[in-house]
Amino acid sequence: MPLVQTRGAASAQGFGEFAQATAVNYIEDVFSTYLYTGTGASQTITNGIDLSTKGGLVWAKDRTFANGHQLYDTARGVQKRLMTDQTAAQGTETTGITAFNTTGWTMGAQYEINDSASKYVSWTFRKQPKFFDVVTYTGTGSNTTVAHSLGVVPGSIIVKRTDTTAAWAVYHRSLANTQYLVLNTTAAAATGATWWNSTTPTSAVFSVGTDASVNASGGTYVAYIFAHDAGGFGLTGTDNVISCGSYTGNGSTQQDITLGYEPQWVMIKRTDTTNQWVMVDNMRGFFQTADKALCANTVNAEAADVSMSGAMQPIATGFHFYNANSSVNASGGTYIYIACRRGPMKVPTLGTSVFYPLTRAGTSAVANITGVGFPPDSALIKNRGGAAATVDWSFNFFDKLRAPGYRLSTAFTDAEDTSVNFITSFNQDGISLPSVGYTATNGSYNYINYFFRRAPGFFDEVCYTGTGAIRTISHNLTVAPEWIIVKKRSASASWYVYVASLGASKEMILDLTLAEQSDGADLWNSTNPTSSVFTLGADATVNQSAATYVAYLFATCAGVSKCGSYTGTGTTLQINCGFTAGARFVLIKRTDSTGDWYVWDSARGIVAGNDPYLLLNSTAAEVTSTDYVDTYSAGFEISSTAPAAINASAGSFIFLAIA
Question: What is the DSSP letter of 393?
């Protein structure tokens, strides 16, 4: 994409609505994990990846039933299918992928890729120097080289003969150039000089020997070529988005694999003994509590052939192992991986691309909430009615990173709890709810749902385990957070909030009405966060040894969000957030005295008349009879009728607003 002048706090390009002059690459331009449901009829997947003019690979898998992996690429052409779980030659599927488009691809009714009874995942790799290339070639039967356009030395190469039966040959930089792996089997790394001709690839060619799997005379082949830590992305062109690395398992409950970024897709293979080719991604479920794995070498449905429960989770700088799962972290085991960076890398310029408020009536039946407009990372849900002071009537946080069935209640100090009755999945355009009519999310009540997408300069989320010692936590907000909301997950504790306008010696408590407190030395080590880390003290509420936590990070993003403060006047007060069409979400808290955490949104109504509000720190029903905030194109307006908790003369207040 062309280069634009940066707007706002974060130094990255927006979601693409501005004219540009210099090409800039982002992971969301070249890679997509996209979930879809089969229709049994022609269907177009719009994932924003230009396959028509740029070229690339679509790799799809049925998650519901035991159907093989489906690989189609632009080098071989539409309708030409390969399957990584089989050695079969290329087949022609007239109802497989029928078109490569500038924003995705179109498929027919072929049941292994588009059956009306199945859910699917697709991974799209677009051709791009320093990321991925796909080439075809004809074998010579003698040692030779094959040209590629990756522009850097490949990190991994997957080769498949297409005209007849043959194994899937895998080269990986972490193995010797005399070694190879086979993608369609569980076999350990083997030695064979005739596969890669004992020659390391270069930035222009890779070598093949005389083995028929890679170079039979007259045989036809396709090669998928992956870069490794080659830069080429982001405004400076130095950001890495793909890594081909290795590690040794430690059989421990704690091990970090450092990439320098948070991954969204990882494929792992143990090389010293037999093991599956494990594939995880953050759309299906790549979280601490239960990873949903698929295996490239089997037809099995999701998680049917490898137990990954609680094995690994993405972190801001790579991925983390929580147990000694032999598939990924056996003590002394050697492993290779290919990993792709999480997106988006672009800073949003429209609030609608990262935040969506939705009112809905519960159904007490299976419900697929759609129309969000983006894949949500977090959902904050509140039953708008009022009843007993229990967590089911609180605002409840649910996250893709923690797992959809795990909740935290903002009005309570309770530890994280779980139920299959909460949310069953985070989807491409919303969430799914189960058939049980659960009070907190889908009973016979009215609800407000807030959906958030993690994006640079706007919102990020980090899960971490405490150490009991002063330390820093990495994040991917790319700017210094202005709000950090921390909640202990493994035991009861209040919600502690760092607010930049108050400074690192202060904190607010989300579940209470208290004024600002002065425990910042214990909580934040009296240290303001930076664009890459935030600091924790040794206090058990934010950093107890072995306890688990989640942190939600917000910042001011030009035209999208505003973390601000104001002094009350007791009269009509306009709050300028730099917006153009007013705020769709407003959260206000008084800091110099007691007061509730008030929440308004455009879905329930921010209008010239009465505006319903809810309280984050309370289970109380929605209040609909007051007019405390009004519309204002640059942000929001506080009315003269607002109480002292919102607009006391000379009172101090903080707010979070989203356009």
Answer: G
